[in-house]
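Dear Dr. L.,

I hope this message finds you well. Following up on our conversation about the binding site, I have prepared a predicted three-dimensional model of the protein together with adenosine-3',5'-cyclic-monophosphate. For your records, I am including the exact sequence and ligand specification that went into the calculation, followed by the structure tokens. Please feel free to forward this to your student if that is useful.
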Amino acid sequence: MQITVLGCSGGIGAGRRTTAFLVDDDILIDCGTGVGDLSLEAMARIRHLLITHTHLDHIACLPLLLDTLFSRLQSRPLVIHARADCMHIIHDHIFNWQIWPDFFELPERERPVVRFHAMEPAVPIYLDGRRIDMLPVAHSVPAVGYRVERDGAAFAFSGDTTSNDGFWDALNAHDTLDLLFVECAFPDREQALGQQAGHYCPALLARDLTKLRHAPRVGITHLKSGEEDSVFAALQARVPGRELLRLCSGDVFTI
Ligand SMILES: Nc1ncnc2c1ncn2[C@@H]1O[C@@H]2COP(=O)(O)O[C@H]2[C@H]1O
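The resulting structure of the complex is given below.
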């Protein structure tokens, strides 16, 4: 299985792209601004989108993606997998004909270019040999993480979250974890704001990483713009025993 980092920044600014990860060439996890760097051919290979939550930095490119691929999707619609409440938020607040046309009924209501599939944490789905599990997390809006397993190799992504037990318990319930992407958005000095906004800081993430029974490579994502160096260094100092990777757009992992 191959995981490509398209965007992993907690904000914007030169060289920064917001959250989007490509699994193999057909499953996209979140649809932040990193998607805009894909070639049209690569975009057209995406068949499934897994959404962690509805904040703009994770869905900003979804309306544009559907418009860009409109003619190509008419023969094979994109499927968006998400919590049911996230689906409704996206439809009602984005695809409402005012912010963007309702591609869920275009070109015709009976054969739209995109459709929703509601997922829940207890029920895995299988997409061409990949098992997908939704994982509980704790953010400021309804949110989840995902675990993707193929041929015994497993990758997981936290999405946006602050300290919790459910995510780590869900990872520990499986036998393997080879690669983990976890967010660490805020510096320790902003821990209170970070918790209010539903994010990790190095102190909280270092504590929660001790809950994980697996020893995957750990990629750090969602570092806030301008705080990348200091937050990553603080986390490394607090987690000397694990291999931590500072993710960058363009990184490719094979597991
Ligand atoms: N009280 C708050 N609750 C949620 N988000 C906040 C708050 N204050 C500031 N924010 C910012 O709003 C951002 C929304 O997207 P993020 O969750 O990535 O990160 C959040 C914070 O940077």
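In brief: The chain is about 25% helix and 25% strand.

With kind regards,
A. P.
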